[in-house]
Amino acid sequence: MTDPPEFKLSRKGGEYVGKRSKSISGFPCATWLSHNESSEILLPGFSDEVDASHRFCRNPNGQPHGPWCYVDADAGPEWEYCDVPFFSDVHGERCDVRIEGHCVHPRECKMDVTGLSYTGRKNVTIKGHQCQRWMSNFPNDQLLFGTENQTFPDDLHLQHNFCRNPTGDEGGPWCYKSNGIGLDYCDIPICY
């Protein structure tokens, strides 16, 4: 197949065989066989043939958020998800916030001080920092901070970089900074 589809059919995207070869943060993907210790374990999970030049985004081990790759950059994370979209019957519809797969129109305020249920689209902190995507490992390696175990009121997707409070922080909704290490709080008004 010379031009495979550039979308996934399932959430995990194990069937994806497209040609995307950059991570969500724009880092080039490394060749899969350059990671000798991992490649033997992962090879049976590939949906296509892997050779020495294969550096396409795949999900051979069933990561929960879809295709990923090892990163070929000294300053980047070891691995990161790739931005492989879902196939959609409804073209042109933008859906920033989803709950259980359904598109919702969120309120841009929080119901209580901690904002545990806040699902708005604010993605800039009090100090003016743009929020890092929750599923990106750069510049903050969120895997070290336990992102997989945090609780979100909505579905995470690759572009999701909205202020949330997945840890129940008393300071309210927050996010990791996309332009530096660490986190910052967001100014979300209380609903009246």
From TrEMBL:
Disulfide bonds join 163-186. CDD domains: KR (cd00108). PROSITE patterns: KRINGLE_1 (PS00021), KRINGLE_2 (PS50070). The keyword Disulfide bond applies. SMART domains: KR (SM00130). It holds the Pfam family Kringle. Residues 12-87, 115-191 form the Kringle domain. SUPFAM superfamilies: Kringle-like. The keyword Lyase does not apply. Keywords: Disulfide bond, Kringle. This is Kringle domain-containing protein. It comes from Darwinula stevensoni.
